[in-house]
Amino acid sequence: MTPLRLLMSRLGAQAARLLAPRDVQVVSWQRRSSGPPATFPISRGGGGSSYMEEMYFAWLENPRSVHKSWDSFFQKASEGASCGLVQPQPPSIIPESRPALSRGTKTSKLVEDHLAVQSLIRAYQIRGHHVAQLDPLGILDADLDSFVPSDLITTIDKLAFYDLQEADLDKEFQLPTTTFIGGSESTLSLREIIRRLENTYCQHIGLEFMFINDVEQCQWIRQKFETPGIMQFSSQEKRTLLARLVRSMRFEDFLARKWSSEKRFGLEGCEVMIPALKTIIDKSSEMGIENVILGMPHRGRLNVLANVIRKDLEQIFCQFDPKLEAADEGSGDVKYHLGMYHERINRATNRNITLSLVANPSHLEAVDPVVQGKTKAEQFYRGDSEGKKVMSILVHGDAAFAGQGVVYETFHLSDLPSYTTNGTVHVVVNNQIGFTTDPRMARSSPYPTDVARVVNAPIFHVNADDPEAVIYVCSVAAEWRNTFNKDVVVDLVCYRRRGHNEMDEPMFTQPLMYKQIHRQVPVLKKYADRLIAEGTVTLQEFEEEIAKYDRICEEAYGRSKDKKILDIKHWLDSPWPGFFNVDGEPKSMTCPATGIPEDTLIHIGTVASSVPLEGFRIHTGLSRILRGRADMTRKRTADWALAEYMAFGSLLQEGIHVRLSGQDVERGTFSHRHHVLHDQDIDRRTCVPMNHLWPNQAPYTVCNSSLSEYGVLGFELGYAMASPNALVLWEAQFGDFHNTAQCIIDQFISTGQAKWVRHNGIVLLLPHGMEGMGPEHSSARPERFLQMSNDDSDAYPAFTEDFEVRQLYDCNWIVVNCSTPANYFHVLRRQILLPFRKPLIIFTPKSLLRHPEAKSSFDQMVSGTSFQRVIPEDGAAARTPEQVRRLIFCTGKVYYDLVKERSSQGLEEQVAITRLEQISPFPFDLVKQEADQYQGAELVWCQEEHKNMGYYDYISPRFMTILSRARPIWYVGRDPAAAPATGNRNTHLVSLKKFLDTAFSLQAFEGKTF
């Protein structure tokens, strides 16, 4: 017989139903004394022990710690007694001086009634939010369902669900330790129990927390909300709340009056968000937080900038001037996408606090992982490993929170060791509509916030038209984050007074909702009337508060008219003090040589080929790899993995923090890196030799990520935003995996500096190469990055002394495809030694990782050497350039195929091969130099990618510009195709042989016109 059936046979069906509701798992526990095991229902689904479980464990320790009735009950049950023996036997709870009660009647009923009350309390804790009054409009159910759970007492007749009667309402019942509704009282009447439960769980706050599998956390939440009278506010707190509501609402009203035809994505309908955010910040500051990083979509952003970040109002108002001219740098962005950074005194605590609002495009939730990465970096640089100084707040829209997958990806970073920010406060502005989409069509889950349940984050739903409830919930949320270092969600159930924007007509699609909204009394008036009625403020004081803020806005409006130029630098969300000159320009336009002393190379190579920890046993296959590294170091050569090791190690010596993140980066997808060694005998014992290079080196972080690209790349981008003095790299498992991170690439990396003057040195490592592995693991799509490069293909550049560095400064990002380990080493170091920061896209190899020819001598890496944008021919053809009939330009891995084919055909003196290592910005000067050296040669561009992909469409017009269209450059490579590569190995080899034959057929282009 199953444990559940055994229990039911002993206790009777009625009691078993009460003790084992649908969310209770039955587990067997053995008494710690002689006798057969007893089986009892043990709660595992609600975040706290059931009342019976607690008594049972207490009884196991000391039978006298429970009432005699329960002692007898547990004793009989553990002895395997039948129902008839278990229930009648417990001694009476009536004093012994009275006559004993008849068997099997009142005592049994009393036990059952107490158990019913425990189930009733638990039902409210689990499901009370389903009937909470959350919608300010009173027309929608926040959980999309009007059904009232059958185990909640909302009418007298539902008492029958628990086999209770109306006469039981005035009976006293013992309260379990899993509720705080009694305050200092241990017993309450059933009527009072129900009243207090309804006040706690079914009014303007809906609590979802019983899914949390930690008893302490559940108890903490219960205490914060169930304790009678806990949600009290002083007169001063109410006045402060009113003043903040005034500022929030009057700011929107002012914009509406002055610029009635402008889009601004106002906050009307959720004005309480401003005091909500300020409460979170105040409470966090009180608990020691010094830096708060915010991310949010565009609704309410201007209000947050004005009243939370406290940006100068004239800076905001001047953005509405249609005659405002842009400054020289940056194209700028619409005003409701911009960010901000501000250090100020928090008036509630009189402590310094730094607030930054991260700029964000209309891809609403794209900023989520960026904020988390920036927060993690700020915590790292402060040594704030527990998040007690730096925290993040994320504001979301309801439809986006439920609909966009990056939200889920971000949540799943929240507890990972190398990504956690020790808790984020999420505030959902729940408009109950997504643009024009009804929530019933926008999500399948009851609430938009259900995604947060995957990380056991408590969810506090609150009616946004009850400001005091909102403020209390936000205060608890901030305290939760500080206490448990875990995420928490505040769901502000509100409405959107206007359409999607101020020019939109919402009555087209939501007529009934907007009829109610037009009748809705604004929250400010409702709250002011309430405070006036109770005597907290007078009508005159209220009106003076409004007039005061209106006057502030008018004065700022007058000053804003003096602004003639938009300087986007005022909107920086991540300033780097001391990195640039005062005017934001680089301190120089030079880059030092990137080579390092040979003894440094040898030292790094020695450590890279050893295990710094004693008694650490590594895999035998890894021993062979380390011996190979040691052998290369002795021979003064480096392959790709060792060159990377040397680049990272040398930067660590110079005090530069290096962080490498991505899927399986610790070992490397292609088993070449092995930066984290694993002890073969002791679980989870690891060693990172890179952190044992120098006594006072900077730390090296290498961390395998979750199987996410969008979220993790956004995180690393945010991490790189925090400081220019760190090398932050994200590696795709295969190059084309960046497809699912395209939003971050398009919106933040490619355009970030132009839109927000945001320099960023993020490095993307994208394994790339046509090797017969099929269309999914071949191409990193270089054509996409090159198409988005901003250098002009038709502009003939002026080759000034600082041309190389100036060209890098003017570009939006750098795209390289290194063919040697040395050049990879140099480009990584150049990324930090440049006097500015640009994103760096590196197409990294796969087969070249172990190619015998793809090795570099230390001579190419020592002091005085630098990155080579172009590697010219250095063989026989270079010694007799006048005899060369064809000059082949290429990039990356195909160079080695070309060299092998040239050798097999004996064309070393007739065909020269030049490699473009830096593709964008295009090395006009060096390409011209190479073409001029071989005046009599045909020019060919050879690539292994298909013609409509790869590099050809980018390089062709630039060749024409630099050669003044005097000489054509012919294409050699694969024909145009839809897929980037074939999945058939034989087809791959046939196409490779075909284009290699064409590359070395010196008659291939005779008679053809360009």
Automatic annotation (TrEMBL):
Pfam families: 2-oxogl_dehyd_N, E1_dh, OxoGdeHyase_C, Transket_pyr. One of its GO terms (cellular component) is mitochondrial matrix. The keyword Oxidoreductase applies. Keywords: Calcium, Glycolysis, Magnesium, Metal-binding, Mitochondrion, Oxidoreductase, Thiamine pyrophosphate, Transit peptide. The keyword Metal-binding applies. It catalyses: N(6)-[(R)-lipoyl]-L-lysyl-[protein] + 2-oxoglutarate + H(+) = N(6)-[(R)-S(8)-succinyldihydrolipoyl]-L-lysyl-[protein] + CO2. It is found in: Mitochondrion matrix. InterPro entries: 2-oxogl_dehyd_N, 2oxoglutarate_DH_E1, DH_E1, KGD_C_sf, ODO-1/KGD_C, THDP-binding, Transketolase-like_Pyr-bd. SUPFAM superfamilies: Thiamin diphosphate-binding fold (THDP-binding) (SSF52518). Its main location: mitochondrion. Residues 638-851 form the Transketolase-like pyrimidine-binding domain. CDD domains: TPP_E1_OGDC_like (cd02016). It is an enzyme of class 1 (oxidoreductase). 2-oxoglutarate dehydrogenase (E1-like) component of the 2-oxoglutarate dehydrogenase multienzyme complex (OGDHC) which mediates the decarboxylation of alpha-ketoglutarate in the tricarboxylic acid cycle. The OGDHC complex catalyzes the overall conversion of 2-oxoglutarate to succinyl-CoA and CO(2) while reducing NAD(+) to NADH. The OGDHC complex is mainly active in the mitochondrion. Involved in the inhibition of cell proliferation and in apoptosis. The OGDHC complex comprises multiple copies of three catalytic enzyme components, the 2-oxoglutarate dehydrogenase (OGDH/E1), the dihydrolipoamide dehydrogenase (DLST/E2) and the dihydrolipoamide dehydrogenase (DLD/E3). OGDHL/E1-like isoenzyme may replace OGDH in the OGDHC complex in the brain. The presence of either ODGH/E1 or ODGHL/E1-like isoenzyme in the complex may depend on its tissular distribution. Belongs to the alpha-ketoglutarate dehydrogenase family. This is 2-oxoglutarate dehydrogenase-like, mitochondrial. It comes from Trichechus manatus latirostris (Florida manatee). The gene is OGDHL.
